[in-house]
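Intended use. Records like the one below are meant for learning the mapping from a protein sequence to its folded structure. Do not use them to infer anything beyond what is encoded.
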Amino acid sequence: MTGRATVLIIDDEVRSLETLNRVLSEDFDVLMASNTQEAEKLLQSEMIHVILCDQRMPDETGVEFLSRVREAWPDPVRMIISGYSDSADIIAGVNDAGIYRYITKPWHPKELIEIVRGAHELLDLQKENETAALEMKLTTQTLKRQVSEKKTIAKKHFHFDRIVHGKGSALGETINLAKRCAEFDISVLITGESGTGKELLARAIHYGSSRADKPFVVENCGALPDELLESELFGCKKGAFTGAYQDRIGLFEVASGGTIFLDEIGETSPAFQVKLLRVLQEGEVRPLGAQKVRKVDVRVVAATNKNLEDEVEARRFRGDLYYRLSAFPIHIAPLRDRVMDVEPLTHHVLSDVAASFGKVVKGINAATMAAMKTYPWPGNVRELQNEIQRMVTLTDDAMLGTNVLSPKILRDYESNENALIGEVGLLKGQVEFLERQLITDALVRHRGNITRVADELGLSRVGLRKKLDRYDLKKVTWLEGGRHG
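Structure written out for the chain above:
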């Protein structure tokens, strides 16, 4: 649950107000109003989670007031408390004001506390379930089950073991490092180029921690101007700035008890960094336009593709915030430095993409894989994923061939001198390696056309086929859109 709930009580009888305050104040932050005008002022200035309103008041009924509240401040859970149980009032409350509960007097203190606690829990569950409409006909139990099911799936999907990498990859050591820090409540700073999988590692850290049953919330700090970013992270009151049409609970409060992932933290302004530092130091947020601060318990995992030490030296990033965020730094190497990851990543992504596109693609041939291993992947894993999606879209064959590779990857492969470098020992090994590479290159250039490859290499078709068998290159001739000849 997101901290301590703020409950607004509205009743024109002073004794009733005092009694409700006495019963609820031990478990909740209570605000009191003796009429609807006072209540509106509090709704304008404070973050209210639950409203308890008397039904019969001099100026207007509770249902009439909460119907207006529903339009202006739809987030708080609205409840009527009354000594009258007129069925017409109850029906109007449900239909017009979106009333969560209609509580009749006399009420029992313990039962009332549980009802208010349940209302706050409902609000939390709806936020986690990415819906702000209390009008939805979902019970607390239904929402609990949905959130629980999503978390179970997420734990399985974002486990450390699901991060694909090859044998001997630097990513293996990175994962081991992340596993060690996951169990401790420490801030983590993940660095690496765009597309290397920083968010995936952050999710694995969250779901490998004691906070796994609580929310994991993501914000891209480079995508919003300061005012909107503050509103997203810290919350705001209606009218706090142009465009603030309703109260908003900030992501720090939504993530309370769990983890917040601040991506592209290096893109934030110095002014915003001061405010973020205060949140991290004090463990509390002040929504824009609100008077009171809200306590939050959040683990922060931040990420950047910049060298923040250089940014600190250049005075573009606050040193005190950097040291607060980088208690445990983790670096993810670019894909060009992890060539052994290309093949397992390709097969993993291909399986997912083919299934989602509804196409039968069984694999990728040797020549195409050789070209993909040579390419430096400046966009890292994200670029590889995009390339495979493009290839699956274009192919009409069961095996992905070079005919569906992007021209830039083929050009890079054909011009890269490293394509002729391998682990060689004796002269015989060098000759065989070079011969195998020359045949592979020719097959790529001629799209598997055996006649043209044989002509270029000065071989007969029979001689070429023998060499294809010898070097296990026969699968290269599974045509990439060309003809065998």
